[in-house]
Amino acid sequence: FLRITYHRVILFNWNHRELVQPAVKNKKRFMNISNNIFFGLINWDEIQSERHVGLTGYAIWKIKQIGDIRLRKVEYSSNYKADHWCEKGHIIYCIKGEMTTELKDGSLHILKEGMVYYVGDKADPHRSFTEKGVTLFIMD
Known about the structure:
Blueprint: E1 10-13, E2 18-20, E3 49-53, E4 58-66, E5 69-76, E6 80-81, E7 90-103, E8 108-112, E9 115-119, E10 126-130, E11 134-139
Antiparallel strand pairs: 1-2, 1-9, 3-4, 4-5, 5-11, 6-10, 7-8, 7-9, 7-10, 7-11
């Protein structure tokens, strides 16, 4: 399990139900999902894929937009490296494989199978890379 020293990127190990984050004294607040989003299912096999080329390797995206929420199943090829610094906020669950995310401050964070990371919009510019490939579920 990776210990985090940078306070804005939080990793969650789903298999061990561990959350690493700084102490927070604020009241609990939950995501507000609009009441006009009704129950639905996504069969990723029925979603058309898009190919995005990185500095090296490529990513295959399958996207489902639900109101203001974008859900994606993303597969990075082996030796994939993002071609840009991303400032968009995400919640990312690692389904299979492993990837490393670099923050603009130079810190590196490893996301392994069963783990989640999240980052807010414009909070920490980041880019990711993987040696062996990875499959992710991303919500933003």
